[in-house]
Structures are given as C-alpha cells and as structure tokens.
Amino acid sequence: MKQKTAHDEDWAYVYVIKNPSYNDICLCAWDSVLYAGTPVVYETRFGLDLGTVVGPAPVPGRSYVPGHSEVHGACLHFSDEKGEEVSFGTDENAHQCDSCLHCQITREPERIKVDGDVTWIDHLATPSEMARYAENEAKEEEALRICREKIRKHGLGMKLVTTHFLLGEPKVIFFFTADERVDFRDLVKDLVSVFRMRIELRQIGVRDESRFIGGLSVCGRDYCCHLMTKEMDPVTIKMAKEQNLSLNSMKISGPCGRLLCCLAYEYDYYMEEKAGCPPEGTKLRIDRELWRVSEVNILSRKITVSGSEGRTLQIPFEEVSFNSATGYWDISEEYLDEMFSS
After folding, report:
1. Which CATH architecture fits 130-204?
2. pLDDT band, residue 340 (cuts 50/70/90)
C-alpha cells in the first residue's frame, strides 16, 4: 500500500524493508541514515506493522556493473595467486568470507529525490513495540490451534497456513488455502468471540503458502519466494525450453508444485544471446553442403550443426553472422579456411 505524505517532494534515503511475519518486501523512505537490521514501523497493506531494514535501495539511473565472466564457483578469494590458502584475521574459527572485501561489499545509503507516491516509514520501532511484537509472536501458535479447531467444528474445506497479530492495531489475520471459495462467516463470529478483536481471513495460493512458511529448495537454499522475491511473477514452460532444461515436471517444479521461480532469472539473458545466433533448424552452407543447426548452447557459446552421415560440428558464436543483403546466416571465411585446412 502506497501513501502520499508531506514528504513527497523531499530528498530522503530509500530502503528495502522486509516484513518478518509474511515476507512482504517494499521500498520505504526515511530522512536519516539507517542500517541493515534496524526495526521500523511502516504502513503495510494490512495496516501499521513491524518491518526490518534489509539495506539501501538501488539508486535510479546507476549503470549496471556486470560480474566477472571467469568465475567458476561461489567465491574465488580463498587463495592467493599460487593457490595457497590465505588466512584472514586472527580468529581461526572465523569463516574467510567474514573479512573478504570481495564478498562483503557494503554500500552506504544515498540521499535521493523522492517524488510521486511513496511509502514512508512511520517511525523507528520502540522497545515497548518490540516487546509487544514478541508477545504477539508467542500468541500466534495458540491462535493457530484455536482456529484449526473451529475449522474442524464447522467442517470447512480450508487449510490454515499461518496467522499474524498486527502491531499497529488490535487485529489478527489468518492466512489459508482452499480449492474453492469458502463461506467462513460463522467461523469469523466464533473467532471474534474468542479473541475480542478484528478478525481477517485471507485466502492465498500454494505459491504464497511456500513464501510464508519457507523451507529448503532443490538447490539447498531457502525458497526464493520466501527469501528475496517481492512479486510472484508468472513462470512458464517456455522459459525451461529456451534454456534447454529437462521438461520433466518433477525436475523443474518446486515443493509448491509450481514451476521453479529461478527459471525466470536467466530467461531474458538467454533470449538476448539467442537473438544474435541462428535459431535451431536453420540451414548453413559449409563446404558446398547444407548443414542444419541442431543446438544453440548459450553456456559454451557454440552452435552445433549436423550434416550428412551423422557428422556434427561445433562453431563459436563469433564466427557466425547474419548477412542482411542475402537474408542468410554465414560463417566467416577465415574460420572455414582454418577448419578445413587443418
């Protein structure tokens, strides 16, 4: 939820704020420097609630800086040029990445012009609000138990996922999944009689369920939807096809039963790279014979062409170009001369 405030034309610092209860992520402005981990109270789509500063938001207009193209692992800064392990600091038990400047790059917040609709942080969380938030967290497990009992009592076809007591007002939100629309009016009356506050029931999808609860995905890391993504963007089977991935639904689906979120991460890059290459099925003339493009491998940056009698060749991307005059894809003469002369 966005709100207009008197700060609309001010210069301010903009931060990424994450709600620890239902993993909403948004950008919020504040007129002083805040650092990661600072608890704040801000306006959410449900009302005032507690959030945590993740870090400064990306500055608009800043150019993209690509990563190193020769990286083959998570971190290459564990050893020196001779391959010998390098120790950092004096604590033998400390992980090397804790003091590795290449991994731990800190970026100071920058004051930028904030205009238009923007969500501003209401205030920094006070110790009493933090204590009340902890009390609410302790009550949520009991609220889940009570609500599940009421659901069984009314025989409703719904699965309760999680619950949350709002910090800014006396309201409790119950999140649930269901295969169809549920009439929960009698359930709400029972819950109001127990909790004596506003009750809100929110039906969510299976992807939202994974985002709320979290867990480990097939890669061994926490679910992307739970850890870092804000919007549940659609993921299509076309994304898997363009990246030459297995179309076995068991291999490209997450625990939620939907296609993996990470299929969308590199899709745009694959499409950009393939735009400069002949598509599969294209015919190329090599040594007075027509060869067919059978594969375009973005990772190795080579295309595979198939000829007669089962022959195959792998040709680097840079050796193939589109001839706008003839309307055909050509292979550089220098590459052909070198290939057939050896």
Report:
1. 2-Layer Sandwich (3.30)
2. confident
pLDDT tens track for 167-211? 988 999 999 999 888 999 999 999 999 999 999 999 998 888 888
| pTM summary value | 0.69
Classify residue 51 by burial, with Cβ atoms within 10 Å: 0-12, 13-18, 19+.
buried
Which among 2, 17, 64, 50 has a CA at the least distance from the CA of 230?
A: 17
- C-alpha 29/C-alpha 16 separation (Å) is 9
Question: Could you give phi then psi for residue 183, rounded to 5 degrees?
Answer: -90, 100
Confidence at residue 9, expressed as pLDDT on a 0 to 100 scale: 55
Per-domain residue ranges of the chain:
11-58+106-125, 130-204, 208-271, 283-341
Please report, rounded to a whole number, the percentage of residues in the chain having pLDDT higher than 70.
81
Q: Tell me the DSSP string of 97-124.
A: GGG-TTT-------EEE--SS-EEEEEE
Using CA atoms, how far apart are residues 220 and 74, in angstroms rounded to an integer? 14
Contacts of 132 (CB under 8 A, 6+ apart): 167
pLDDT single digits (tens) 274-311: 888 999 999 998 888 899 999 999 989 999 999 888 88
Q: Looking at residue 318, what DSSP letter applies?
A: G
Residue 167's φ and ψ, nearest 5 degrees, are -80, -40
